Amino acid sequence: MANPLIPHSAVVLDVVAENADTSTFTLQFTEEEKKGDFAFQPGQFNMLSMFGVGEAPISISSDGCSPDTFTHTIRHVGSLTKMFSRLKKGDLIGIRGPYGTGWPMDEARGKDVLIVAGGIGLAPLRPAIYEILRNRGDYGKVELLYGAKNPGEMLFTRYFDDWSKDFTVHLTVDDSSEHADWAHGTGVVTKLFEMMDSTPKDTVVMTCGPEIMMKYVASGLQQRGFDPSQTFVSLERKMHCGIKKCGRCQVGTSFVCQDGPVFPYSAVANQPAKIVGALGRV
Ligand SMILES: Cc1cc2nc3c(=O)[nH]c(=O)nc-3n(C[C@H](O)[C@H](O)[C@H](O)COP(=O)(O)OP(=O)(O)OC[C@H]3O[C@@H](n4cnc5c(N)ncnc54)[C@H](O)[C@@H]3O)c2cc1C
Ligand code: FES
């Protein structure tokens, strides 16, 4: 049996700088039998490795219907991810995956969908957006609320006009003082609740961003009557194996690498914060 910890090699086909510290890499497996055969669920992640350096879990940010290539959108925050920032067309990296659970796309069919993202958190949600766009008739009212620190930190801005043709997009930034042309909201992403049309009835919520943001989003929506078992959050934990073998990502009785990263808010909200982090109870 093949060793599941051994990565497959993939070549960088394209690099797009999203902003000063985040890039999107288009990748393709180099082995013939893997090429054209990469299937994943929106919300799943891969383990990405620089040979001889290390590995990091990174969500897949592309459309699941193109099995030839896939993308990862990476914020260059630490030792490994800063090395990824130097990758260029033709370079090779290692990939294991896809791993983890995805966003509840089937559960959301026939219902309204509210997507709330902060900063890099839009990357794991982009495959869900593509899935909705490809099957627009299967979903009801769809709204995206997206916040970032400032306009320059927003991801995927080049797609917003297109997305706005099929669903409502509301944007906000913490600070717009250096962007006189900013025509959207100012303030934290929960401020956008005031202008959304989404209502608690038959709405599935998918949210991703810093844990403290997801906490305010999920609890704020709960106060407005949204069902916490229909509000889905994505947990970020340090990982080692990615396949439920090492225990590094364990929270309570769950392993984020296999049981998550997507969980219903109802499954984490009553767990102690010292186990589940900012999303839990203090
Ligand atoms: C399931 C899952 C999906 C993920 N998807 C993505 C993704 O799509 N894109 C992406 O860019 N990242 C994603 N991450 C986070 C990514 O795995 C980490 O940023 C990465 O492992 C950091 O590795 P490093 O060696 O570069 O940083 P390290 O050297 O380990 O850390 C260096 C410094 O950066 C800080 N740091 C680490 N992670 C973060 C962070 N996320 N934000 C801010 N500071 C941080 C550390 O606290 C430390 O101070 C995901 C994580 C998980 C668990
Ligand atoms: S990363 Fe090893 S058990 Fe989850």
Automatic annotation (TrEMBL):
GO annotation, biological process: pyrimidine nucleotide biosynthetic process
Single GO molecular function: 2 iron, 2 sulfur cluster binding
Bound cofactor: record note: Binds 1 [2Fe-2S] cluster per subunit.
Source organism superkingdom: Bacteria
Keywords per UniProt: 2Fe-2S, Iron, Iron-sulfur, Metal-binding
Amino-acid positions noted as binding [2Fe-2S] cluster in the UniProt annotation, renumbered to this chain: 241, 246, 249, 257
Limits of the FAD-binding FR-type domain: 5-105
Cofactor: [2Fe-2S] cluster
Pfam families in alphabetical order: DHODB_Fe-S_bind, NAD_binding_1
PROSITE patterns hit by this protein: FAD_FR
Protein name per Swiss-Prot or TrEMBL: Oxidoreductase FAD/NAD(P)-binding domain protein
Organism: Dethiobacter alkaliphilus AHT 1
Higher taxonomy: Bacteria, Bacillati, Bacillota, Dethiobacteria, Dethiobacterales
